[in-house]
Structures are given as C-alpha cells and as structure tokens.
Amino acid sequence: MPCDVFSSRTLRRMIDNPNGSIIMDVFEYGQTTVGYAAFLTRSGSLTARLYSVVILSRFSGQGLIKEYLQARLAEFAQKGYLRLVLEVRTTNKAAISLYSSLGFSVERRLEGYYADGQDGYRMVKYFR
Ligand SMILES: CC(C)(COP(=O)(O)OP(=O)(O)OC[C@H]1O[C@@H](n2cnc3c(N)ncnc32)[C@H](O)[C@@H]1OP(=O)(O)O)[C@@H](O)C(=O)NCCC(=O)NCCS
Q1: Which atom of ligand 1 is nearest to the CA of 101?
Q2: What is the number of alpha carbons within 13 Å of residue 99 lying toward its C-beta?
Q3: Which residues contact 102 (CB under 8 A, 6 or more apart)?
Q4: What is the 3-state secondary structure (H, E, C) of the chain?
Q5: How far apart are CA 65 and CA 54, in angstroms?
Q6: Rounded distance from Cα 111 to ligand 1 centre (Å)
Q7: pLDDT tens digits for range 55-93
Q8: For 114-123, how does the pLDDT look when each residue is reduced to its tens digit (9 = 90+)?
Q9: pLDDT at residue 22 tops 90
Q10: Per DSSP, what are the bridge partners of residue 55?
C-alpha cells in the first residue's frame, strides 16, 4: 500500500476524482470499527488496485481478511477486470503470505517506494 493510514486529504481527493472510484469496506464488531479495506478503480481501466487493508491485531490471524478478499476478488473477476494490483512493504511477511495464498505474485521490486525509504513489492493477480 502506498501509505499505511489514510489522511482525510487523501480520502477527499480520491472521493472527488471524476475519473475514478473508491470502494471502501469498513469492518465492525458490535459498535467498534475493527478494520477497513479500500480499492481504487478508474473509468475505462481493467486494472483495479487494492489501496489499503487493515484489521486490528486482536482480530487478525483468524482468516477473516482472507475470506473477505476472496469474496471481493471473485466480484472483480465477475465484473470483467483483468487484474488487481497492490503494493506491500518487502518486510511485511504476513501480508505477502496472505496475498500469495490468494494468487498474487511479485511483479517487481519498488526501490525506496515508502516515505521512510523502505522498498516495496508490486504484486499482481490476473483474473484471466
Ligand atoms: C495484513 C493483514 C490485513 C492480514 O489480516 P489477517 O486477519 O491476519 O489475515 P487472515 O487471517 O485473514 O489471513 C490468513 C493468511 O494471512 C497470512 N498471515 C496472517 N498473519 C500472518 C503472520 N503473522 N505470519 C505469516 N503469515 C500470516 C497467512 O498466509 C495466512 O494464511 P494461513 O493461515 O492459511 O497460513 C493484517 O495482518 C493487518 O492488518 N496488518 C497490518 C496492516 C497491513 O500490513 N496491511 C497490509 C498492507 S499491504
């Protein structure tokens, strides 16, 4: 993901973009927000982007995000998208393992991609 947390300015810019859409899912447990995921799409493009996904640590490791992403991936495939792309820190072993298990593979390394200088991977999943 390009950033780990949304700023309100970034979110506003995405919502106002006339050429793109943001799909945002918020995960709740009772009255508490425990995570969210955001995808970006652009009009005329067959590539969707997983921009951000996070779940509180006390809910992680239970397969919830994997199940959620499997359902979302099936929807993108059904809508005719060609591929889904994302960026992840090369050090984020849990996320890389999760994405690999969902059929994503590393397309390339992104040197110094993050604001703190860390490298990222561009990962891609093709639907056809
Ligand atoms: C990445 C994140 C969303 C995954 O959520 P999660 O609830 O832990 O994932 P799930 O339990 O649904 O997925 C299970 C799979 O994820 C991977 N995984 C999850 N935690 C892992 C860990 N600690 N170590 C290695 N793999 C891990 C495994 O592939 C696992 O499959 P398995 O149980 O069959 O081995 C969560 O860890 C998180 O919010 N991290 C902080 C934010 C973040 O890094 N977001 C992604 C930015 S690219």
Answers
A1: 29
A2: 26
A3: 66, 69, 70, 73, 125
A4: CCCCCCCHHHHHHHHHCCCEEEEEEEEEECCEEEEEEEEEEECCCCEEEEEEEEECHHHCCCCHHHHHHHHHHHHHHHCCCCEEEEEEECCCHHHHHHHHHCCCEEEEEECCCCCCCCCEEEEEEECC
A5: 8
A6: 23
A7: 999 999 999 999 999 999 999 999 999 999 999 999 999
A8: 999 999 999 9
A9: yes
A10: 35
**Whether residue 28 has pLDDT greater than 90:** yes
At 4, the pLDDT band (50, 70, 90 cuts) reads low
**Tokens 């006390």 belong to which residue?**
58
Mean pLDDT of the chain: 93
Token pair for 1: 């993901």
Mutate to test the pocket of ligand 1, among 49, 87, 97 (most ligand atoms within 8 A of CB): 97
Q: Does domain 8-126 sit in CATH 2.60.40.10?
A: no
